[in-house]
Fold each of these.
Amino acid sequence: MPDLNPISLLSTKTFDIIIAGAGLSGLSLAWYLAEGNYKGNVLLVDNSFAPHNSKTWCFWANHKPFFPEIIYKKWRKSYFAAQDYQSFLYMNEYAYYCIRENDFKEFVLTKLRKKSNFTLLEEGILDIYGSKKKGVLVTKNSDTYVADFIFQSIIQPESSKKEHLKYPLLQHFYGIEIETEDGIFDPNTFVIMDVDHSFDDGYAFMYVLPYDHNRALIEFTVFSENVLPKKEYRKKIRTYIKEKYGFGKKEYKSVRKEFGVIPMDDRPFEPTLDVNIYNLGTMGGLTKASTGYTFTRVQRYSRLLAGSLINGESPQITNPSKNRYRYYDKLLLHILSTSVPESRRVFTHLFKNNSVDEIFTFLNEDTSIVQDLKIMNSVPYMPFFRAIGNNLI
Ligand SMILES: Cc1cc2nc3c(=O)[nH]c(=O)nc-3n(C[C@H](O)[C@H](O)[C@H](O)COP(=O)(O)OP(=O)(O)OC[C@H]3O[C@@H](n4cnc5c(N)ncnc54)[C@H](O)[C@@H]3O)c2cc1C
C-alpha cells in the first residue's frame, strides 16, 4: 500500500481516531471514548446509522448490567429441555438481560451527537489500509480519511477465513417474534435450549425469549457448517409453536424476524489488520468460539481499549480468552463438529449437573481451575478424550 506523503495528506481529512463500522463493537468503543471524555477527534463511518432492529443482544451479568438504561427485558429463570432431561434453571447470582439493537444505537448516537469532537459519516467503506504513520480509509465515493489509529469491524482478517480453520462451525438461526391474542407465555422464564432430537445435520435447539404473556421471540438455532434455506427454519418454528403452545399459523401475528450467522470456530485472536489498523468485534475474534456470545466480551474489550486511548497510551489490546479457555472451546468445537448425539449428551449433562450460575461463570471465563475441573467432571469423558486426541498440539 502507498505511504502517505505530506502532499497527499493535505488533500485528505485527518482525525485522531477512525472507527470503521458502527455496529455493536464500533458503537461500544465510541461510547466508552465519549463517556471518558476523550478529547481527540473521532470519525465514525457506517453504511447507515438508521434503525434496523434486526437483532436483540442477550448477555448474563452478576453485577449491574451494561447499559442499564436500555435493558429491554431481564430474566432470572430459564428452562432447558432435552429428550431425557427437562428442568427449570434458577439464577441466583446472575440475571439474563436483553437489549434491542435499535435502543442501543439510539442511546449511543444520541450521546455522540452531543459531542463536537465526534463526526458521524454515513458512507460505504471501500478500503482500509495502514501506512507507517497513519491509517487510511477510503470510502466508496473515493474520499480519503486518515487517522493515527483505525478501529475496524468490517474486514475479515486472512487468518479467520474458512480455509485456515480446523473447525469452521457456524451458529445459524432464524427467529420470529410473534404476538398472540391470549397470553400463552410465561414472561419470567426464557428457554435457553429446547434440544431438537429430530434434526441430525447439526446440534439444533429452540431458543425462546418471552417478552410478555402474549409476545415472544422464537428462534430455531443450529450449530453446523452450513446455513439452511430460510423456509426450513420457518417450518421448524411453525411446528414448535403448534406442538408447544397449540397455535396454528393463523392464530398468531409475526411482528419481527431475525436471521443470524455467527462464527463458532477456532480462528485466532487477531488484534490488528495492518499497521495502525485494529480489529474489533467478530472480525477481531471477540466472539466466544463455543457459544457465539459476543456482547459482554465486546464491552470488556472496548472499555479497556478506550481507557488506554483516553490516557494517551497506545491501544491496549488484550486477548479476551486465556489459553486454557481457548483449548476448552476447541474441544467442544471438535465434539460439535463430529457428533450430534455426543453434543446432545454433553449439553444435557452440563445443564443437569451444574447450576446455571456455575455455567455462566465458566462461559464468562471467570472460573478457577478447581471450578473448571468440577464442570469437566460433570460431562461425559469419552467425547472429550477423543477431542483431546485430535488436539494434542
Ligand atoms: C441476529 C443476531 C443476533 C445476535 N444475538 C447475540 C446475543 O444475543 N448475544 C451476543 O452476545 N451476541 C449476539 N450476536 C453476535 C454478535 O454480538 C453480533 O453479531 C454483533 O453485532 C457483532 O458486532 P460487530 O461490531 O462485530 O459487527 P456488527 O454489529 O455487524 O457491525 C458491523 C458494522 O459495519 C457496517 N459495515 C459493514 N460493511 C461496511 C462497509 N463496507 N461500509 C460501511 N459500513 C459497513 C455494518 O453496517 C455494521 O453496522 C448476534 C448476532 C446476530 C447476527
Amino acid sequence: MSFNINTSYLIDCFKDIVNVPSPVGYYVKFKPVLNRYAESLGYTCSYDNRSTGYITVEGEDSSKTVLVGAHADTIGAVVRGIDSDGTLLVRELGGINYSSIEGNTVTVHTRHGRDYTGLFACKYHSVHIFEKARSETRDETNTMVILDERVSSKEDVKALGIQNGDFISFSPNTEITPNGYLKSRFIDNRGAIACVFEAIRYLNENNLKPKYNTIFAFPFDEETGLGGTYVPSEVSEYVAMDIGLIGPEHDGNEYSVSICAKDAANPYDYDLTCRLIDYAKKAGCDYAVDVYKLYGTDGNAAQRGGNNVKSAAFGMAVTCSHSRERTHITGLENTAKLLLAYLLDI
Ligand SMILES: [Zn+2]
C-alpha cells in the first residue's frame, strides 16, 4: 500500500511551525499553533496540567487506545544572570552544543509579553581582539547574549523588563534547497509534528479512521527527559516520533525513516518495533533500523515513568543534531508514510 503524501502541505506546515519559539517549558506561543492546526483539521487540542497537548482521533476499533507522541519543545536557554556590562548570562535547556549556537540570533521572552532579540556570542568573540577566540571552549562560563538594544549596564537591561529566568529561543535559520534538502534548527521535532498534521489531513481527505482510538500528544518537556513520563491511563502503546541519527555505524540517512531499536537506556518493545518494521515494508518506505547511544525519546520516558505501555520510536534522520540540522524532504515523506501505516494498521 502506498500513501500519496501532500508534500506541499507538509513543508508549508514545517515552515510555519518552526518559526514559533518553544524552548523547553515555554509553551505560551506554541499552544495557539497546536490549537489552530487542530481546529483546521476538525479537532480541538486539550491540555493536561503539565501543558502537554492532546488531539484525540476516534478509531474504527475502540477496544484499544494508542498514543503517538511528537514533542513540542525545542532546545533553548534561560537568562541566568545579567552582567554589569549589560550582556546576559545564559543556562542551556535541553542539551545544546554551545559552539553551534554562536553567531545565532536569539530572542529573549520576558514575562510581561515583550520580546527582545540579541546575538548569541562567545565572550572571546573577535579574532582581531582575543588570541583565544578560536581555541576557547564554548560553554556557559564564556557565552553571553548581546542584546540588540542600546544598553551598557545591568540597570539598563532590567529597565527593559528582562529578568533572570526569562526564556531564550534561537532563530531556526530555515532553508530548503531546490533539490529538497532541508536545513534548519528544530527539525527535531517540528519535522515530526508536521508529519502528524499531514497524517491527520490525509485521513480526513480520504475519509479514513485510524484502526484504534489514537491520541496525538505534544509534550513541552521532552528535551529534559520529562515528556512522556505521564501517559493517560487508557493508552497501551506509546510511539514516539522523534529524530533519527546519522553517523558511523548507523544505517540511517537523510532520505529514509529511522526506526530506533534501542536508545541510551533500553531496547524498545520487541513486538511493537517488529510491527513498525513490517509497516515500513508494506508502505514501501525507505527505512533503517538503528541503535542509539546518546539519545532518548518520550517513549523511553514513558517507560521510566512506570506507565503500563509498550514503547517504540521512529522519525526522520538528521545530520548535526541539536545544531542547525539537515535532512531531505524524502525523509519527512517516508516518516509520514510510516506514521499512516501504523495508524491504519495496514
Ligand atoms: Zn527530539
Amino acid sequence: MTRQMSWIALIGTFMIAAAFGIAVIREPARQAEASAALNTALIVEGTDLYAENCAACHGASGEGIAAYPPLTTTVSMDAQTVYNTIERGRYNTGMAAFGVDEGGIFTGMQIQSLVTMLQADTWDTVAARVAELGLTPPQIVVAEIPAETVALVETLPDGAALSTGLTVYAENCAACHGANGEGSALAPALNTDELRIRLSDADIARIISEGVPGTLMSSWSSALDAAQQQGVIALISRWGELNAAGVSLPTIEAAPLNMSPQAVANGQRLFDLLCTQCHGIDGYGSPIAPALNNQTFLSTTPDAAIQAIIAGGVSGTVMPAWSGYLSDADIAAIAAYLRSLQPNAPIVAPAQP
Ligand code: HEC
Ligand code: HEC
Ligand code: HEC
C-alpha cells in the first residue's frame, strides 16, 4: 500500500516535471507566436494612424510629396531615431511633434505602432488602406511659380510680402489646401470670401502658428520665420485681390495613365486571365466579388487609388495583393483597361446570377 502510494507519487512527480519541461521547451515558440501576433497588431494600427496623419505629406506609399521627404528609407534607419523624430518632430521644419508629452496626439504605444509599421516595409498594403479610407492625397503639386506671375504680384500694394506668401504657400500648404487655395479632400479652401469674413488676420496668424490640434493642420511657428508667416497671412487675407488680378498658380498632375490601345489590350488580357473568376466577365461582378465595370466605382475612384487597391489587395477579404506577381506597368495597364470601360459602364452594377 505504502509502496503503491510512493509509485503513484513518483509517477505524479514525473508527470509534473515532464509537463513543466514541455512548457519550458514550448515557451520560446509560444513567445515567438505572441510577438508575431503583437507585431501584426502594431502594423495594422500603425497603418491606420499613418493613413490619417502622415500620408498627406509623406504620400500614400511613403514616396514623399513635393518638399516632403519619402519615408521608404526609414526601414534602414535606427528605430530609436525614427521614434524620436515622430515623438519630438524636427525643429524648424513642417514635421510637427506628435508625442503627447510634446503637445501632440500620440501615446508611446501609438508611436511604437508607427515605427513598427514604417520598418516592416509594407507600403503596398499601406497605400491600399489609404485608398480604402479615401485618404489618397491629390497628386497635384505646384509647378515652379512663373516669373510673370511673380512680377504681376509685385505690382500689387505691398507686393513683396504677397510674393513671399505665394512661395511659402506653394512649398508648404498647396499639397493639402490645393494649388490655388481651392481646398482638397484633405483640407478646407483658403481662398473664399466666407473665410475672409470669418477670420481676421489675427485669427489666421494664430491658426498658422498654433495649428489645429488633432487635425492635419500642424503648427508652423518653428518651420516658418516671421516674414514668411506674415507673407502667407497676407496671401490668405488678400486672395480676392489676387484672383481679381488674374493670378493663378500652375499645377502639374501626376503622370496620367497610359491609355494607348496596346496598354488597354494588355490590361484586358491580364484581367481576363487573373480577375474574371471573381469579378466576372468584363468586370460585371459575381457573387464573390463586386462589379468594377460600373459608374459608381469608376467615377469615385481615382486612377492612383485603383492601382493602389490592385497592388495592395483589400485586407480582410479574398481580394489578393497583386504587387508580388504583377509589375507596376501591368497594374497600370489593368487600371487603363478598367478606365476604358467607363464611357459604356452601367450606372449601377446589374444583379449577377
Ligand atoms: C505637414 C507635413 C508633415 C506631416 C503631416 C508629417 N510629416 Fe514627417 N516630415 C515632414 C518633413 C518636412 C520632414 C523632413 C524634416 C527634416 O527636414 O528633417 C519629415 C520627416 C519625417 C521623418 C524623418 C525622415 C528622415 O529620413 O529623416 C519621419 C520618420 C517622419 N517624418 C514621420 C512622420 C510620421 C510617422 C507622420 C505621421 C504621424 C508624419 N511624419 C507626418 C513633414 C510632415
Ligand atoms: C497636411 C495637410 C495640411 C497642410 C500641409 C496645411 N494645412 Fe492648413 N489645414 C489643414 C486642415 C485639415 C485644416 C482644417 C482644420 C480643422 O478641422 O479645423 C486646416 C486649416 C487651416 C486654416 C483654417 C481654415 C478655416 O477655414 O478655418 C488655415 C488658415 C490654414 N489651414 C492655413 C495653412 C497654411 C498657411 C499652411 C502652410 C503654411 C497650411 N495650412 C498647411 C491641413 C493642412
Ligand atoms: C479571389 C477572388 C478575387 C480575385 C482573383 C480578384 N479580386 Fe478584386 N476583389 C475581390 C473582392 C472580394 C473584393 C471586395 C473587397 C471588399 O469587400 O472591399 C475585391 C475588390 C477589388 C477592387 C475594389 C472594388 C471597390 O469597389 O472598391 C478592385 C479595383 C479589384 N478588386 C480589382 C481586381 C483586379 C484588377 C484583379 C485581377 C488582377 C482582382 N481584383 C482579382 C476578390 C477578388
